[in-house]
Amino acid sequence: MKDKTKSLQSLDTLFIRTYGCQMNEYDSGRMADIMKQAYGLRLVALPEDADVILMNTCSVREKAEEKVYSELGRYRKLKLKRPDMIIGVGGCVGQQEGERIQKRAPYVDLVFGPQTYHRLPEMVKQIRRERVHLTQVEMPEIEKFDHLPKHQGQGVAGCVTIMEGCDKFCTFCVVPYTRGPELSRPVADILSECRQLLADGVVEISLLGQNVNGYRGVGPDDEEWDFTMLLYAVAKLDGLKRLRFTTSHPMEMTSELCQAFAEIPQLMPYLHLPVQSGSDAMLKAMHRGHDRDTYLRQIEELREYCPDIALSSDFIVGYPGESDADFEDTLDLARRVGYDSAYCFKYSPRPGTPAAHAEDNVPEAVKDERLQRLLTLMREQSREAMQRQLGRTVEVLVEKAGRNEGDMEGRTADYRIVHFRGSARQIGQVMPVRIVETYGQSLRGELILAGD
Ligand code: SAH
Ligand code: SF4
Ligand code: F3S
Question: Which Gene3D superfamilies does the record cross-reference, listed alphabetically (predicted)?
Protein backbone atom coordinates (compact mmCIF):
# COMPACT_ATOMS: atom_id res chain seq x y z
CA MET A 1 0.00 0.00 0.00
CA LYS A 2 1.12 3.52 -0.74
CA ASP A 3 2.39 5.75 2.02
CA LYS A 4 -0.70 7.30 3.57
CA THR A 5 0.69 10.83 3.54
CA LYS A 6 1.50 10.61 -0.16
CA SER A 7 -2.04 9.67 -1.03
CA LEU A 8 -3.33 12.80 0.66
CA GLN A 9 -4.83 15.35 -1.62
CA SER A 10 -3.22 18.73 -1.53
CA LEU A 11 -5.00 21.45 0.40
CA ASP A 12 -5.63 24.53 -1.68
CA THR A 13 -8.65 26.39 -0.45
CA LEU A 14 -10.03 27.71 2.81
CA PHE A 15 -13.47 28.96 3.78
CA ILE A 16 -14.03 30.75 7.10
CA ARG A 17 -17.48 31.58 8.48
CA THR A 18 -17.23 34.22 11.20
CA TYR A 19 -19.81 35.05 13.85
CA GLY A 20 -19.63 37.42 16.80
CA CYS A 21 -17.57 40.40 17.73
CA GLN A 22 -14.74 42.24 16.07
CA MET A 23 -12.25 40.17 18.01
CA ASN A 24 -13.55 37.15 16.14
CA GLU A 25 -13.24 39.07 12.86
CA TYR A 26 -9.65 39.82 13.75
CA ASP A 27 -9.00 36.18 14.72
CA SER A 28 -10.48 34.92 11.44
CA GLY A 29 -8.14 37.19 9.52
CA ARG A 30 -5.22 35.82 11.46
CA MET A 31 -6.38 32.22 10.91
CA ALA A 32 -6.39 32.93 7.19
CA ASP A 33 -2.87 34.41 7.45
CA ILE A 34 -1.53 31.42 9.34
CA MET A 35 -3.09 28.85 7.00
CA LYS A 36 -1.85 30.78 4.02
CA GLN A 37 1.66 30.76 5.38
CA ALA A 38 1.61 27.07 6.34
CA TYR A 39 -0.27 25.55 3.40
CA GLY A 40 -0.53 28.30 0.82
CA LEU A 41 -4.30 28.14 1.27
CA ARG A 42 -6.39 30.61 -0.66
CA LEU A 43 -9.61 32.02 0.80
CA VAL A 44 -12.79 31.18 -1.12
CA ALA A 45 -16.25 32.69 -0.81
CA LEU A 46 -18.27 29.46 -0.74
CA PRO A 47 -17.92 26.43 1.54
CA GLU A 48 -18.48 24.06 -1.38
CA ASP A 49 -15.23 25.29 -2.96
CA ALA A 50 -13.14 24.71 0.16
CA ASP A 51 -10.74 21.95 1.21
CA VAL A 52 -10.76 23.34 4.75
CA ILE A 53 -13.84 24.87 6.39
CA LEU A 54 -13.43 26.75 9.65
CA MET A 55 -16.25 28.19 11.71
CA ASN A 56 -15.31 30.96 14.09
CA THR A 57 -18.25 30.96 16.46
CA CYS A 58 -19.86 33.22 19.06
CA SER A 59 -21.81 32.10 22.10
CA VAL A 60 -22.83 35.43 23.58
CA ARG A 61 -26.53 35.17 22.87
CA GLU A 62 -29.24 32.53 22.71
CA LYS A 63 -29.39 29.70 20.20
CA ALA A 64 -25.69 30.16 19.45
CA GLU A 65 -25.00 26.44 19.67
CA GLU A 66 -28.08 25.56 17.63
CA LYS A 67 -26.99 27.89 14.85
CA VAL A 68 -23.60 26.20 14.78
CA TYR A 69 -25.10 22.72 14.54
CA SER A 70 -27.49 23.68 11.79
CA GLU A 71 -24.66 25.24 9.77
CA LEU A 72 -22.58 22.13 10.40
CA GLY A 73 -25.40 20.03 8.99
CA ARG A 74 -24.85 21.79 5.68
CA TYR A 75 -21.11 21.13 5.75
CA ARG A 76 -21.76 17.48 6.53
CA LYS A 77 -23.44 17.10 3.15
CA LEU A 78 -20.39 18.59 1.44
CA LYS A 79 -18.12 16.23 3.31
CA LEU A 80 -20.14 13.21 2.28
CA LYS A 81 -19.17 14.03 -1.30
CA ARG A 82 -15.56 14.91 -0.44
CA PRO A 83 -14.37 12.92 2.58
CA ASP A 84 -10.91 14.57 2.56
CA MET A 85 -12.42 17.91 3.45
CA ILE A 86 -11.45 19.19 6.90
CA ILE A 87 -14.07 20.81 9.10
CA GLY A 88 -13.06 22.80 12.18
CA VAL A 89 -15.09 24.66 14.79
CA GLY A 90 -13.26 27.43 16.61
CA GLY A 91 -14.18 30.47 18.67
CA CYS A 92 -16.35 30.78 21.74
CA VAL A 93 -18.80 27.92 21.07
CA GLY A 94 -15.80 25.70 20.39
CA GLN A 95 -14.33 26.75 23.71
CA GLN A 96 -17.55 26.17 25.64
CA GLU A 97 -18.75 22.98 24.00
CA GLY A 98 -15.38 21.28 23.49
CA GLU A 99 -15.73 17.55 22.82
CA ARG A 100 -19.52 17.73 22.92
CA ILE A 101 -19.36 19.08 19.38
CA GLN A 102 -17.72 15.96 17.99
CA LYS A 103 -20.07 13.73 19.96
CA ARG A 104 -23.00 15.37 18.26
CA ALA A 105 -21.33 16.01 14.91
CA PRO A 106 -18.71 13.28 14.46
CA TYR A 107 -17.72 14.57 11.02
CA VAL A 108 -16.11 17.60 12.69
CA ASP A 109 -12.37 16.99 12.58
CA LEU A 110 -11.25 19.73 14.87
CA VAL A 111 -12.54 21.83 17.76
CA PHE A 112 -10.43 24.70 19.05
CA GLY A 113 -10.80 27.77 21.23
CA PRO A 114 -9.88 31.41 20.72
CA GLN A 115 -6.50 30.90 22.41
CA THR A 116 -5.28 27.92 20.39
CA TYR A 117 -5.77 28.81 16.76
CA HIS A 118 -2.09 29.57 16.26
CA ARG A 119 -1.69 25.78 16.36
CA LEU A 120 -3.99 25.25 13.39
CA PRO A 121 -1.30 24.14 10.92
CA GLU A 122 0.03 21.57 13.37
CA MET A 123 -3.46 20.30 14.17
CA VAL A 124 -4.42 20.03 10.51
CA LYS A 125 -1.23 18.13 9.80
CA GLN A 126 -1.94 15.65 12.55
CA ILE A 127 -5.52 15.14 11.41
CA ARG A 128 -4.38 14.38 7.89
CA ARG A 129 -1.54 12.08 8.90
CA GLU A 130 -3.26 10.16 11.65
CA ARG A 131 -6.88 10.57 10.62
CA VAL A 132 -7.79 11.61 14.14
CA HIS A 133 -10.26 14.04 15.59
CA LEU A 134 -8.80 16.78 17.76
CA THR A 135 -10.07 19.09 20.47
CA GLN A 136 -7.79 21.83 21.74
CA VAL A 137 -9.58 24.16 24.09
CA GLU A 138 -7.10 24.72 26.90
CA MET A 139 -6.13 28.29 27.62
CA PRO A 140 -2.36 28.32 27.51
CA GLU A 141 -0.59 31.14 29.29
CA ILE A 142 1.55 31.65 26.22
CA GLU A 143 0.77 34.47 23.88
CA LYS A 144 -0.82 33.14 20.72
CA PHE A 145 0.24 36.43 19.20
CA ASP A 146 3.89 35.35 19.39
CA HIS A 147 3.15 32.54 16.97
CA LEU A 148 1.24 34.36 14.32
CA PRO A 149 2.74 35.40 11.01
CA LYS A 150 3.08 39.00 9.92
CA HIS A 151 -0.27 40.76 9.93
CA GLN A 152 -0.87 41.91 6.39
CA GLY A 153 -2.85 45.09 6.05
CA GLN A 154 -5.74 44.92 3.61
CA GLY A 155 -7.37 48.10 2.52
CA VAL A 156 -7.37 51.39 4.30
CA ALA A 157 -8.54 50.39 7.79
CA GLY A 158 -7.10 47.67 9.99
CA CYS A 159 -7.64 46.19 13.44
CA VAL A 160 -5.18 45.15 16.11
CA THR A 161 -6.21 43.11 19.14
CA ILE A 162 -4.47 44.59 22.17
CA MET A 163 -5.85 42.33 24.87
CA GLU A 164 -7.69 39.08 25.29
CA GLY A 165 -10.35 38.02 27.71
CA CYS A 166 -12.42 39.69 30.36
CA ASP A 167 -12.27 39.84 34.16
CA LYS A 168 -15.47 41.72 34.72
CA PHE A 169 -17.84 38.76 35.07
CA CYS A 170 -21.09 40.56 34.38
CA THR A 171 -23.65 38.04 35.58
CA PHE A 172 -25.26 37.47 32.16
CA CYS A 173 -22.16 37.06 30.05
CA VAL A 174 -20.19 34.06 28.78
CA VAL A 175 -17.16 35.98 27.57
CA PRO A 176 -15.03 35.60 30.74
CA TYR A 177 -15.52 31.83 30.42
CA THR A 178 -14.92 31.53 26.69
CA ARG A 179 -12.07 34.01 26.38
CA GLY A 180 -10.45 33.60 29.76
CA PRO A 181 -8.85 36.28 31.93
CA GLU A 182 -7.74 39.69 30.73
CA LEU A 183 -4.29 39.47 29.19
CA SER A 184 -2.72 42.57 27.69
CA ARG A 185 -0.13 42.35 24.94
CA PRO A 186 3.13 44.22 25.48
CA VAL A 187 3.18 47.76 24.09
CA ALA A 188 6.12 47.00 21.79
CA ASP A 189 4.26 44.10 20.13
CA ILE A 190 1.20 46.23 19.53
CA LEU A 191 3.24 49.07 18.07
CA SER A 192 5.10 46.68 15.83
CA GLU A 193 1.87 45.15 14.49
CA CYS A 194 0.49 48.66 13.90
CA ARG A 195 3.67 49.59 12.00
CA GLN A 196 3.27 46.51 9.77
CA LEU A 197 -0.27 47.57 8.91
CA LEU A 198 0.80 51.14 8.22
CA ALA A 199 3.59 49.88 5.96
CA ASP A 200 0.94 48.00 3.95
CA GLY A 201 -1.02 51.19 3.33
CA VAL A 202 -3.46 51.09 6.23
CA VAL A 203 -4.16 54.62 7.54
CA GLU A 204 -6.83 53.91 10.16
CA ILE A 205 -6.30 51.53 13.05
CA SER A 206 -8.87 50.21 15.51
CA LEU A 207 -7.56 48.78 18.76
CA LEU A 208 -9.65 45.83 19.88
CA GLY A 209 -10.48 44.05 23.11
CA GLN A 210 -13.51 43.21 25.24
CA ASN A 211 -12.49 46.02 27.61
CA VAL A 212 -9.72 47.97 25.97
CA ASN A 213 -9.68 50.57 28.70
CA GLY A 214 -8.79 47.80 31.14
CA TYR A 215 -5.53 47.46 29.20
CA ARG A 216 -2.47 47.07 31.41
CA GLY A 217 0.53 45.98 29.39
CA VAL A 218 4.27 46.06 29.76
CA GLY A 219 5.73 49.22 28.25
CA PRO A 220 9.10 49.57 26.54
CA ASP A 221 10.35 50.99 29.87
CA ASP A 222 9.31 47.76 31.63
CA GLU A 223 6.67 49.71 33.54
CA GLU A 224 2.96 48.95 33.36
CA TRP A 225 1.21 51.12 30.80
CA ASP A 226 -2.47 51.84 30.88
CA PHE A 227 -4.74 52.26 27.87
CA THR A 228 -4.41 56.02 27.59
CA MET A 229 -0.61 55.78 27.50
CA LEU A 230 -0.90 53.21 24.74
CA LEU A 231 -3.22 55.48 22.75
CA TYR A 232 -0.74 58.36 22.82
CA ALA A 233 2.04 56.02 21.65
CA VAL A 234 0.02 54.54 18.77
CA ALA A 235 -1.12 58.01 17.69
CA LYS A 236 2.53 59.01 17.15
CA LEU A 237 3.17 56.30 14.56
CA ASP A 238 4.11 57.64 11.14
CA GLY A 239 1.36 57.44 8.57
CA LEU A 240 -1.53 56.96 11.00
CA LYS A 241 -4.41 59.23 10.09
CA ARG A 242 -7.16 57.82 12.25
CA LEU A 243 -7.31 55.90 15.50
CA ARG A 244 -10.32 54.15 17.05
CA PHE A 245 -10.92 51.58 19.76
CA THR A 246 -13.63 49.23 20.96
CA THR A 247 -15.07 48.10 23.40
CA SER A 248 -14.72 50.19 26.54
CA HIS A 249 -16.18 49.59 29.96
CA PRO A 250 -17.71 52.45 31.98
CA MET A 251 -15.94 51.16 35.08
CA GLU A 252 -12.58 52.10 33.59
CA MET A 253 -13.47 55.31 31.81
CA THR A 254 -10.85 57.61 33.34
CA SER A 255 -10.70 61.40 33.00
CA GLU A 256 -7.40 60.97 31.16
CA LEU A 257 -9.13 58.83 28.58
CA CYS A 258 -11.93 61.39 28.15
CA GLN A 259 -9.28 64.07 27.74
CA ALA A 260 -7.45 62.04 25.09
CA PHE A 261 -10.37 62.73 22.75
CA ALA A 262 -9.46 66.42 22.93
CA GLU A 263 -5.71 65.98 22.82
CA ILE A 264 -5.05 63.28 20.25
CA PRO A 265 -5.98 64.64 16.83
CA GLN A 266 -5.95 61.15 15.28
CA LEU A 267 -8.43 59.81 17.85
CA MET A 268 -11.82 59.90 16.17
CA PRO A 269 -14.89 61.31 17.97
CA TYR A 270 -16.82 58.08 18.35
CA LEU A 271 -17.19 55.92 21.43
CA HIS A 272 -19.02 52.67 22.04
CA LEU A 273 -19.66 52.63 25.78
CA PRO A 274 -22.15 49.88 26.64
CA VAL A 275 -24.37 50.60 29.63
CA GLN A 276 -26.81 47.63 29.40
CA SER A 277 -29.43 49.29 31.63
CA GLY A 278 -30.38 52.66 33.03
CA SER A 279 -31.65 51.24 36.32
CA ASP A 280 -29.39 51.19 39.36
CA ALA A 281 -31.05 48.02 40.63
CA MET A 282 -30.37 46.22 37.33
CA LEU A 283 -26.81 47.53 37.03
CA LYS A 284 -26.17 46.18 40.50
CA ALA A 285 -27.79 42.83 39.77
CA MET A 286 -25.74 42.57 36.58
CA HIS A 287 -22.49 43.29 38.47
CA ARG A 288 -21.63 46.09 36.13
CA GLY A 289 -19.63 47.87 38.83
CA HIS A 290 -21.03 51.37 38.31
CA ASP A 291 -24.32 53.20 38.70
CA ARG A 292 -26.37 55.31 36.34
CA ASP A 293 -25.14 58.67 37.65
CA THR A 294 -21.52 57.71 37.22
CA TYR A 295 -22.23 56.78 33.63
CA LEU A 296 -24.10 60.01 32.93
CA ARG A 297 -21.26 62.03 34.47
CA GLN A 298 -18.77 60.25 32.22
CA ILE A 299 -20.82 61.16 29.19
CA GLU A 300 -20.89 64.77 30.35
CA GLU A 301 -17.13 64.80 30.79
CA LEU A 302 -16.59 63.23 27.38
CA ARG A 303 -18.74 65.92 25.81
CA GLU A 304 -16.84 68.66 27.62
CA TYR A 305 -13.65 67.45 25.97
CA CYS A 306 -15.23 66.47 22.68
CA PRO A 307 -18.60 68.15 22.08
CA ASP A 308 -19.24 66.34 18.79
CA ILE A 309 -18.50 62.85 20.01
CA ALA A 310 -20.91 60.22 18.64
CA LEU A 311 -21.95 57.66 21.25
CA SER A 312 -23.26 54.15 20.99
CA SER A 313 -24.19 51.50 23.51
CA ASP A 314 -25.45 47.98 24.11
CA PHE A 315 -28.66 47.41 26.05
CA ILE A 316 -30.24 44.32 27.54
CA VAL A 317 -33.96 44.32 28.23
CA GLY A 318 -35.78 41.77 30.36
CA TYR A 319 -32.95 40.85 32.69
CA PRO A 320 -34.33 38.74 35.59
CA GLY A 321 -36.33 40.97 37.92
CA GLU A 322 -36.50 43.96 35.55
CA SER A 323 -39.66 45.91 36.45
CA ASP A 324 -41.54 48.45 34.34
CA ALA A 325 -39.91 51.18 36.42
CA ASP A 326 -36.44 49.74 35.76
CA PHE A 327 -37.13 49.72 32.06
CA GLU A 328 -38.43 53.32 32.19
CA ASP A 329 -35.07 54.23 33.75
CA THR A 330 -33.35 52.70 30.74
CA LEU A 331 -35.47 54.73 28.34
CA ASP A 332 -34.79 57.83 30.42
CA LEU A 333 -31.04 57.28 30.39
CA ALA A 334 -31.07 56.71 26.64
CA ARG A 335 -33.00 59.97 26.16
CA ARG A 336 -30.60 61.91 28.34
CA VAL A 337 -27.52 60.59 26.55
CA GLY A 338 -28.87 60.86 23.01
CA TYR A 339 -27.10 57.98 21.30
CA ASP A 340 -26.19 57.86 17.67
CA SER A 341 -26.82 54.15 17.57
CA ALA A 342 -27.27 51.20 19.87
CA TYR A 343 -27.45 47.43 19.88
CA CYS A 344 -30.47 46.27 21.86
CA PHE A 345 -30.91 42.68 23.02
CA LYS A 346 -33.49 40.65 24.85
CA TYR A 347 -31.91 38.93 27.81
CA SER A 348 -31.29 35.25 27.30
CA PRO A 349 -29.82 32.96 29.93
CA ARG A 350 -26.43 31.60 28.93
CA PRO A 351 -25.26 28.25 30.32
CA GLY A 352 -22.58 28.57 32.96
CA THR A 353 -23.26 32.21 33.85
CA PRO A 354 -24.46 33.28 37.33
CA ALA A 355 -27.62 34.89 35.94
CA ALA A 356 -28.65 31.55 34.44
CA HIS A 357 -29.41 30.36 38.00
CA ALA A 358 -31.94 33.16 38.49
CA GLU A 359 -35.40 32.62 37.12
CA ASP A 360 -35.73 34.13 33.65
CA ASN A 361 -38.91 35.76 34.94
CA VAL A 362 -39.73 38.58 32.54
CA PRO A 363 -42.35 37.12 30.18
CA GLU A 364 -41.30 36.89 26.54
CA ALA A 365 -44.14 39.22 25.48
CA VAL A 366 -42.91 41.88 27.92
CA LYS A 367 -39.34 41.48 26.67
CA ASP A 368 -40.60 41.87 23.12
CA GLU A 369 -42.55 44.98 23.95
CA ARG A 370 -39.65 46.60 25.81
CA LEU A 371 -37.29 45.76 23.00
CA GLN A 372 -39.63 47.37 20.47
CA ARG A 373 -40.00 50.53 22.57
CA LEU A 374 -36.25 50.85 23.02
CA LEU A 375 -35.61 50.18 19.33
CA THR A 376 -38.16 52.82 18.37
CA LEU A 377 -36.44 55.37 20.57
CA MET A 378 -33.03 54.42 19.20
CA ARG A 379 -34.24 54.67 15.62
CA GLU A 380 -35.57 58.18 16.33
CA GLN A 381 -32.28 59.20 17.89
CA SER A 382 -30.29 57.78 14.98
CA ARG A 383 -32.52 59.51 12.47
CA GLU A 384 -32.17 62.83 14.23
CA ALA A 385 -28.40 62.41 14.41
CA MET A 386 -28.32 61.68 10.67
CA GLN A 387 -30.53 64.71 9.92
CA ARG A 388 -28.11 66.94 11.80
CA GLN A 389 -25.44 65.98 9.27
CA LEU A 390 -27.32 67.56 6.37
CA GLY A 391 -25.50 70.55 4.93
CA ARG A 392 -22.39 69.90 7.00
CA THR A 393 -18.96 69.57 5.45
CA VAL A 394 -17.24 66.59 6.99
CA GLU A 395 -13.89 64.86 6.60
CA VAL A 396 -14.29 61.50 4.91
CA LEU A 397 -11.65 58.80 4.74
CA VAL A 398 -12.16 57.25 1.31
CA GLU A 399 -12.18 53.47 1.74
CA LYS A 400 -13.38 51.74 -1.42
CA ALA A 401 -15.52 51.89 -4.53
CA GLY A 402 -19.23 52.15 -3.80
CA ARG A 403 -21.88 49.80 -5.14
CA ASN A 404 -22.95 52.14 -7.93
CA GLU A 405 -20.64 52.88 -10.84
CA GLY A 406 -18.62 56.06 -10.18
CA ASP A 407 -19.45 56.06 -6.48
CA MET A 408 -16.88 55.93 -3.72
CA GLU A 409 -17.53 54.98 -0.12
CA GLY A 410 -15.88 56.25 3.03
CA ARG A 411 -16.45 57.06 6.66
CA THR A 412 -16.76 60.28 8.57
CA ALA A 413 -14.75 60.89 11.72
CA ASP A 414 -17.78 59.78 13.73
CA TYR A 415 -18.01 56.55 11.77
CA ARG A 416 -20.91 57.23 9.44
CA ILE A 417 -20.83 55.74 5.96
CA VAL A 418 -20.85 58.30 3.15
CA HIS A 419 -21.33 57.68 -0.58
CA PHE A 420 -20.19 60.26 -3.09
CA ARG A 421 -19.05 60.63 -6.70
CA GLY A 422 -15.30 60.20 -6.75
CA SER A 423 -12.47 58.10 -8.08
CA ALA A 424 -10.36 55.18 -6.94
CA ARG A 425 -7.32 57.47 -6.82
CA GLN A 426 -8.81 58.99 -3.67
CA ILE A 427 -8.71 55.75 -1.69
CA GLY A 428 -6.74 56.27 1.54
CA GLN A 429 -7.15 60.05 1.49
CA VAL A 430 -9.19 62.13 3.90
CA MET A 431 -11.33 64.50 1.86
CA PRO A 432 -13.94 67.17 2.61
CA VAL A 433 -17.46 66.12 1.63
CA ARG A 434 -20.67 68.14 1.91
CA ILE A 435 -23.59 66.01 3.11
CA VAL A 436 -26.62 66.40 0.86
CA GLU A 437 -28.88 63.47 1.67
CA THR A 438 -29.51 60.94 4.42
CA TYR A 439 -30.51 57.32 3.97
CA GLY A 440 -31.36 54.94 6.82
CA GLN A 441 -27.86 53.93 7.78
CA SER A 442 -25.72 56.05 5.52
CA LEU A 443 -25.28 59.47 3.94
CA ARG A 444 -24.77 60.89 0.47
CA GLY A 445 -22.35 63.72 -0.05
CA GLU A 446 -20.56 65.79 -2.65
CA LEU A 447 -16.84 66.04 -2.74
CA ILE A 448 -15.52 69.54 -2.26
CA LEU A 449 -12.61 69.96 -4.59
CA ALA A 450 -9.99 72.68 -4.27
CA GLY A 451 -11.40 75.88 -5.78
CA ASP A 452 -15.03 75.00 -4.99
N1 SAH B 1 -17.34 43.64 26.43
C2 SAH B 1 -18.43 44.32 25.95
C3 SAH B 1 -19.49 43.51 25.21
C4 SAH B 1 -19.49 42.06 25.16
S5 SAH B 1 -20.82 41.13 24.54
C6 SAH B 1 -19.04 45.05 27.10
O7 SAH B 1 -18.75 44.82 28.23
O8 SAH B 1 -19.85 45.87 26.88
C9 SAH B 1 -21.78 42.23 23.57
C10 SAH B 1 -23.12 42.52 24.12
O11 SAH B 1 -23.95 41.38 24.10
C12 SAH B 1 -23.15 42.99 25.55
O13 SAH B 1 -22.79 44.31 25.71
C14 SAH B 1 -24.59 42.71 25.93
O15 SAH B 1 -25.40 43.81 25.65
C16 SAH B 1 -24.99 41.55 25.03
N17 SAH B 1 -25.14 40.32 25.80
C18 SAH B 1 -24.19 39.61 26.44
N19 SAH B 1 -24.72 38.55 27.09
C20 SAH B 1 -26.06 38.59 26.87
C21 SAH B 1 -27.15 37.77 27.27
N22 SAH B 1 -26.98 36.72 28.06
N23 SAH B 1 -28.39 38.11 26.83
C24 SAH B 1 -28.58 39.18 26.04
N25 SAH B 1 -27.58 39.99 25.63
C26 SAH B 1 -26.33 39.70 26.03
FE1 SF4 C 1 -19.16 40.38 29.16
FE2 SF4 C 1 -19.24 42.19 31.05
FE3 SF4 C 1 -16.90 41.28 30.20
FE4 SF4 C 1 -18.37 42.83 28.62
S5 SF4 C 1 -17.46 43.41 30.57
S6 SF4 C 1 -17.33 40.96 28.04
S7 SF4 C 1 -20.44 42.20 29.13
S8 SF4 C 1 -18.43 40.12 31.30
FE1 F3S D 1 -19.10 36.25 20.90
FE2 F3S D 1 -16.91 35.32 21.91
FE3 F3S D 1 -16.95 37.74 20.84
S4 F3S D 1 -18.92 34.99 22.73
S5 F3S D 1 -19.01 38.40 21.27
S6 F3S D 1 -17.24 35.84 19.79
S7 F3S D 1 -15.83 37.12 22.62
Answer: Methylthiotransferase, N-terminal domain (3.40.50.12160), tm_1862 like domain (3.80.30.20)
